[in-house]
Amino acid sequence: MRRFSFLPARGLPRLIPRATPSARFSTAAPRQLMATAGFTETQLTVREGVSQICARFPNSYWRELDQQEPDPADFHAALARDGWLGIALPESLGGSGLGIAEATIMMQTIAESGAGMAGAQSIHANVYATQPLARFGSPAQLRSTIPHIISGKWRVCFGVTEPNSGLDTLRLATAAVKQPDGSYRVSGQKIWITCAQVAAKMILLARTTPLEEVQKPSEGLSLFCIDLDRSRPGLEMRRIKKMGGRAVDANEVFFDNYSIPAESLVGTEGQGFKIILHGMNAERCLLAGEALGLGYAALGKAAAYARERTVFQRPIGQNQGIAHPLADAYMRLEAAKLATYHAARLYDQSRTDPAIRQDEVGVACNSAKYLAAEAAFQACERAVLTHGGMGYALEYDVERYFRECLVPRIAPVSREMILNYISERVLHLPRSY
């Protein structure tokens, strides 16, 4: 079997031999659907390396996890074993030192393999939630956390969303009250926290100054990197039953005077909202990549079925009523792909090029997430319809893809809020909310 090697100076993980899936309905959709012209050699190498790991976890694996709902710990471990969890983290901390563009193509490849949103979400927070920590964390915080995250010893979750504020992040109510010894006591509730059941660490956004006491709404929030110690008082989790991506847990997390040490604080107290913005644009890119992967996977399944399924003595793909919607879905995915990797490239370049404004990055990342989510939804819906009645059957997988394709349209920011953002920031229209 062929083995690949990387330039050690780039710190890239190693590639491993490709495994051959066995079950008829467990193979992933062909990945050659996406045109790869314009990607860098490094990005294509990432795609190949991650593909080889994903080939060991075929659709049958994800189908079973979707039904039984265990955590994909062995998938997470496989990616960690070859260093992929540190793809966008500094080499000085054991990462690969690559950018969000490379992380995005990794997430797309995972979703595209048939793992879908479940596979991507199992490592999603490890990639994006660590970006603010890597940039603003103290040397001691970085040394004590990042290597364990990269190695797979610690899983990570991101604690921002609350049931009573939703997308109105500046009105978060979870409070971290400072104690005389410098520690904090956290009280409040977070919701839709992915992988909280298996996470050792949470990147938590909490209010350290009451809203009525700050001069600007963006002040008074602080970011923490905390232990999720379930043996200590003041911490409770409740798993949420959900439509799709059921292999990864989503949770309500309750804090009741949960004690965290002073050294949990990331960056400056009261500046947490500004800090997490560095992770939010990165997450938009990763979600866009995951949506693309899901869409290409569904489209590949649909095209294969349309070539093989014979009705009225000819393949159904010969009918333009089948062919044209799939061709249209392909072009929409390709257009969203261009927007996604343009946004990721801008994000990476903005770190070193002061000429690239952060508002430009925000517009590009939000636009990419919107376009990719919409393209994925269309591709997944048409994949189910192309399969007809069999699109409703578990063994063809497209029903699972369809259930999961709603996630990128909703999270981490809704399509309507992105439209609001573009209306205000680009078109300079009055704010509507």
UniProtKB/TrEMBL annotation:
Signal peptide annotation: none
Acyl-CoA oxidase/dehydrogenase middle domain mapped to chain residues: 157-257
Flavoprotein keyword on record: yes
Domain of life: Eukaryota
Domain Acyl-CoA dehydrogenase/oxidase C-terminal: 270-427
GO molecular function: acyl-CoA dehydrogenase activity; flavin adenine dinucleotide binding
Cofactor entry: FAD
Keywords from the named record: FAD, Flavoprotein, Oxidoreductase
UniProt entry tagged with the keyword Oxidoreductase: yes
Segments forming domain Acyl-CoA dehydrogenase/oxidase N-terminal: 40-153
Annotated family: Belongs to the acyl-CoA dehydrogenase family.
Protein name: Acyl-CoA dehydrogenase
